[in-house]
């Protein structure tokens, strides 16, 4: 634990214990979310049985994850965008990503960072074995469905490990989702967790994945000087993901952020393929019976879900 983490915990504590009210209202600085995630992770891992520890938790501690900090205007877009029913064939730009963001999702729920990781077939096999051990232990039943158990190892799964503050329970906690990237939907969630906020968290995760898959978003990496940070006693910060937005998407995000739009939900944009337009209606007096070629173009505003076009003869 570095000096900043100790100071941070002291600022949000009362009589040596974390104060959820202080933490809920506290304005976190850059990488504070990362520090609190590490702290909570160490607390949770001490309570977990060895066979239950997920392999990606060790990766996080070993600084394998790349960090993506969500800027306020992009966060505003993600929170306002409606739930997408056509999110298909999603990809991760990198296999391990930490989302450095702290924001209020509901009146009593504050998100405090999350991890995205693509589970390999080997890691899915390891999870399957861990679930199997719990199935045959009458004192510790599995929290996962049999359908999910039998699909492990057969498809690409993303696991999202979400760190949040529940003001009602007065504690920081974790919940995790398994996402089928091909279908763009939740494959499984930990049934031991409260389902009260599951839908809102899921919608936000899908919208963030859509942002990563946006054709108008370019991602690149910035590396911090990790050895120098170790010498000064500060925690090593993972490589950072940065984005460069196409001007159309950038202008749209700035517009809704500057105007403070908050009450109406935002939709999506999509590509329209090139096609022939025929002038059939009598109102086209000079062009009736003719046709013209319409170039491919983008229709609508907002994030653009991946599209699959079938070519026919």
Span between termini: 63 Å
Count the domains: 1
Rounded Rg: 23 Å
Note the run of SSEs as H and E. HEEHHHEHEEHHEEEHEHEHEEEE
Major sheet description: 8 strands, mixed
Count the DSSP helices: 10
Instruction: Describe the oligomeric state of these chains in a short phrase.
Output: single chain
The residue-averaged pLDDT reads 79
Low-pLDDT stretches are: none
Strand content: 25-35%
Report the helical percentage: 25-40%
The global form is globular
Q: Which structural class do you get from the secondary structure elements?
A: alpha+beta
Strand order, largest beta sheet: 8-7-6-5-4-3-10-9
Question: Can you give a write-up of this model?
Answer:
The protein is an alpha+beta fold and 313 residues long. It has one domain (3-258). The chain contains ten helices and 14 strands. The strands form four sheets. An eight-stranded mixed β-sheet has the order 8-7-6-5-4-3-10-9, sandwiched between helices. Strand 6 (157-166) and strand 7 (171-180) form a beta hairpin. Helix 1 (3-11) crosses helix 3 (32-45) and helix 5 crosses helix 10 (247-258). It is globular, with a radius of gyration of 23 Å. The mean pLDDT is 79.
Secondary structure elements and pairings:
Blueprint: H1 3-11, E1 13-14, E2 17-18, H2 20-25, H3 32-45, H4 55-61, E3 66-69, H5 72-80, E4 96-106, E5 109-119, H6 121-135, H7 146-151, E6 157-166, E7 171-180, E8 185-189, H8 198-212, E9 217-222, H9 226-231, E10 240-245, H10 247-258, E11 269-272, E12 275-278, E13 291-294, E14 297-300
Parallel strand pairs: 3-4, 3-10
Antiparallel strand pairs: 1-2, 4-5, 5-6, 6-7, 7-8, 9-10, 11-14, 12-13
Helix pairs in contact: 1-3, 5-10
